[in-house]
Amino acid sequence: MNEFDNLSVSDEGLYDWLCQMARQIDLAVAIINPNKGYTIEFVNQIFTQTTGYKEDDVLGSTLSLLQGPLTDMLNENSIQESIENGLTFKTSSFHYRKDGYAFWNEVRHLPMFNQQGILQYCVIIMKDVTDSMNIESLIELEREVYFSLETGHPLENVLRNICKSVEITFGKKCHCSIVLVDENDRMINIYGEMWKDLKELDEKVLLMDMKDNRKINKPLILKDLEQSIYHEAYRPIIDKYRIVSMWSQPILNSEEKTIGLFTMYFEQRAEPKTIEIKFMNRIAPIVTLALKYFDQKSAIHRLAFCDVASGLNNYERFKIILNDFTANQSMGHLYIIEPGEYQNIIDLYDRQGGDEVLRQLANRIQNIPSFADSIIARYTHSAIIVATRLSLREMKIPPIVAEQFLSEPYYIDGKEVYLTLKIGTSSFSSRINYIEAVRQADIALSSALKVTGTVIKNFNMSLIESVEQEMNVLAHFARGLKNSEFFPMLQPKVNLMTGEIESFEALARWNSTDLGVVSPTLFIPVAENTGNIYKVDLEIFKKVLLWQKQRHDAGLKLYQVSINISPSHFYNPAFVESSIALIESYKIDPKFIKFEITESVELENVIRAKKIIDELQQLGIETSIDDFGVGYSSLSYLQELPFKEIKIDKSFVDNLANPRMNAVIKTIIQLSDNLNMVSVAEGIETEEQHLELKRLGCQVGQGYYYYKPMLIEQINELLNQQLKTSFSK
């Protein structure tokens, strides 16, 4: 026996061994012979079950017999090239069974070489992964739907994109449509590439089951449209698009009421398999979710920016526009206007009378030519606020406008009412931020309210006093940091259901040796403006960690503490690394630290913020969005950024008794629940607020109703007392 004969026997043994192995595994296997044109020489039983081809159909053929109309030929060429070069690979390809059914095929190649390094056989291992690929595509579609709605895309664009996405990813060539109906079962609109043609059809054809004249409330599968009772009604569609089959799936709301139909139209006879029915069943809920999320977002937008009682913009909307004014280098005047007789009007005509007076007052301002470029909003229950942009020349003219409001009476319930007006004014520009400008106008209004008759007070000396105060704080700030005068006060966060303390928020405080107790409203702006706010953050952070370490060393229970992080600190490139290093230096589990981030963080860069939050989350550090609802920016990124907690701003809680504000809070709580976030209400001060928030489903509360911010020593006493109480029970 010569060397060639020995090689042949060895090869035959290899082939037999491969065939035996292929018969034993529970995956589809094909053995390809590279010496015979890369044709298939053996397939196991699972291969025939997966592809529908018999063994005789396959042997002597190539893998190209699995290709079909939607197969990616570039990927197929790469597969063939890898086989011919003896390279291992793993990929997914869109293949077809013998009966024309398409499926996602996970294909792996294991090249087999002899002792001389010559490629002898190619082992192809395959697996039907259609279900998992469908799930991945639907998860991606759902993410795109959320992102599109959050970034302000119109609902019609989102629904059209759902149709387009299904057409691209589904295993059969198809056309898709979404039909929506109102509560009276009347068609609202149609979405998808065929919408114009479908709109020409009888509405009953699109929405009704023609057999018993009831709206469709279950899937409708028409394998042969020509042979169905719909064939004449759908004739224009059948002829134009060569439609053969149609599958329709009802879109249901949370009450299981049909609010629309999702329909797929096929140019070939299509009988759905189980996996395709599962796919359709998953599409309809995505449409439902899009509609529900859009409604929630729209409701929050309306409730968050409109004062329903007066019809005016609310203060949140005003702040956003005024901030835009100053950001665009605009300058102008602010007016806070309050009728001197407002309380008398409330006493005589109820709150509706006060709302009507403010509405008429705003209308008069809007009719003044010099106020054409202005924004008007309700400031408090008794006052409106106005910002008007002026030129540099106009800025030199004292803003005296009260005469414009006094020439005509106001009317409430048909009765004439004459008013005096108290007006506080200030100026805004790029050098005076809008918060400070509003504060100045408010101080001026307080002065005007002390004077009888109609009066305007312009802010002047108060500004000088404020600057002097800030400069004094700045002069002592560095010394305060050096002497470690900044310290945390902890305010408990309480489980609304159990009343137990769940965690704490650390609030920065400053007890200056020279100035005494300095308000955070004074020193925090100074710290931010001088770029030293991160030093305050770190001082508070370290003292919290020290407290946690002391409790750990004493064998006492540890609680999670939220640390407020300033935007400049948050975006520092070393923030994540330095934070985890600091936590580890105190040997504290990162789960006991949470970073609270204000809305202004997002305004810099959503992508950067998401990356930082993801890194913190991977390290075990949770994040919270603080003061939610103060600005509209929250809604545009809440779903995109993976926060674990949402804190409802105190200004909302203060107005919880207002039905409209109550609806806002309820919607926010529902939204946080949908996004798997913990809802925390800030500034709870009364039992009524506590009970109502509990009823609305808010999970955690914080405020003076439970506990005020306390020194660490006081917190220790509180926790020790609670521990003794629990033992005594």
UniProtKB/TrEMBL annotation:
Domain called PAC: residue spans: 89-141
Pfam families per UniProt: EAL, GGDEF, PAS_9
SMART domains: EAL, GGDEF
PAS domain boundaries: 36-86
SUPFAM superfamilies listed in its UniProt record: EAL domain-like, GAF domain-like, Nucleotide cyclase, PYP-like sensor domain (PAS domain)
Domain annotation EAL: ranges: 470-723
Protein name per its UniProtKB record: PAS domain S-box protein
Originating organism: Solibacillus kalamii
Taxonomic placement: Bacteria, Bacillati, Bacillota, Bacilli, Bacillales
